Amino acid sequence: QRPNLHTVHLKKKNPWLDPFDDGPDPDMEYGSLFTDGKQDEDPRPPDNPDNPYGFLKFPKGFSVEIASLALKVRGDVRRCCCMVSGGVYENLLFFPAIQMIKDRYPGVQVDVVVSPRGKQTYEMNKNVRWADAYDVDEDFPEPRVYTDFVGVLKGRYYDMVLSTKLAGIGHAAFIFMTSAEHKASYVYPNVNSAGAGLFLSETFTAESLNLSDGGYHMYKQMVDWVGKPFRSVPRQPLPPLKVSLSRKIKEVVEAKYRKAGAERGKYVVIHGIESDSQASMQSRGDTDSLLPLHVWKKIAKGIRDLTPVFVIPHERERENVEEIVGYDASIVFITTPAQLAALINDSAGLIATNTAAIQLAHAREKPSIGLFCSEEKAKIFVPNADEKRCTIIASKTGKLIDIDVEAVKNAINFVNVSLALV
């Protein structure tokens, strides 16, 4: 018996919500006025800059004469909230996803909810309207802060909420209380995810308990869902990582490295000094990504015709650098990712371990040398290294401390000419 081709069951949105939902009816037709193409720009009037109160803002769904029917039929997204788990490195790798949301939904307003350290990253992102400091990784938040923030998110009337924190029933209920129409989040790959699907419209089961193990493409499942093709809209491609720098940050950083004795385009940034400071900007997926100073001293001796600039995450490291490397060493104290990006932007190149600096160099299209504890970590965090002008040096023992210093020096000699020409 031939199968009936008319009874094709599409993927269910969420089997927890309705076990009898077989997906949209293939015979139902909507007019092209509401379903074809991407959403239009927001037709609502903008705020009046001369009036402190602005125009009266109605909640979603209450201003029928302004909100188009396509907002409901086509699933348009006017306001999106992204809850990003982790620190600087994890938030930096979420930048391409934010750019894809802006491309997929023209005119959308994107807000982020991140940790205080992660909030510093959005100084380099022009696509984000508001960045709120709230640590979603906190297992037992203070009730006063928790309830207040639920009210803040609920009052903004988001259409879509995305979360990269592995959700159980508690975090899923937190997202559910925002009253957004589209609620998507990663969930635990074990029994801790039980019940989370009841509160979410889309779930992504993480491959491990640490999402950062996925490296550069750690948000692949969420990106595939956000950029999925829909009727006449093709699949939205993922753009590369880009960061923007303000003139004020560039001026502040230029004063710092000039005070340290370096000139624009004539120095190499060294990042990844061993320290217990959170400003080291490590990834949660690679904890073995810092080198002690005596190794960096050997590497710095291989740099010719350029000034090595040591980036310290805390002022207490300055004495250690002066004692081990020398009192004439160029030292710059930087804790924010935007200032680090500006320092790399004015440099000839970068030599760093697997910290956020290696991704910032790729975003600003600067040549770099990446030091990794293994080849596997290098392939995960820096795919297509040749296209990104990145030379990979990996340890053969699986420990970063055992990295071949002579191989690093040879790589420096190989790229010295290209660095000097940048």
UniProtKB/TrEMBL annotation:
Gene3D superfamilies per UniProt: Glycogen Phosphorylase B
A GO CC annotation given for this chain: NAD(P)H dehydrogenase complex (plastoquinone)
Residue segments, region Disordered: 1-52
Biased composition (Acidic residues): 19-28
Biased composition (Basic and acidic residues): 37-47
InterPro entries linked: PNSB1 (IPR044983)
GO BP term, pick one: photosynthetic electron transport in photosystem I
PANTHER family with a match to the protein in the record: PHOTOSYNTHETIC NDH SUBUNIT OF SUBCOMPLEX B 1, CHLOROPLASTIC
Name of the molecule in the record: NAD(P)H dehydrogenase subunit 48
Lineage, top ranks: Eukaryota, Viridiplantae, Streptophyta, Embryophyta, Tracheophyta
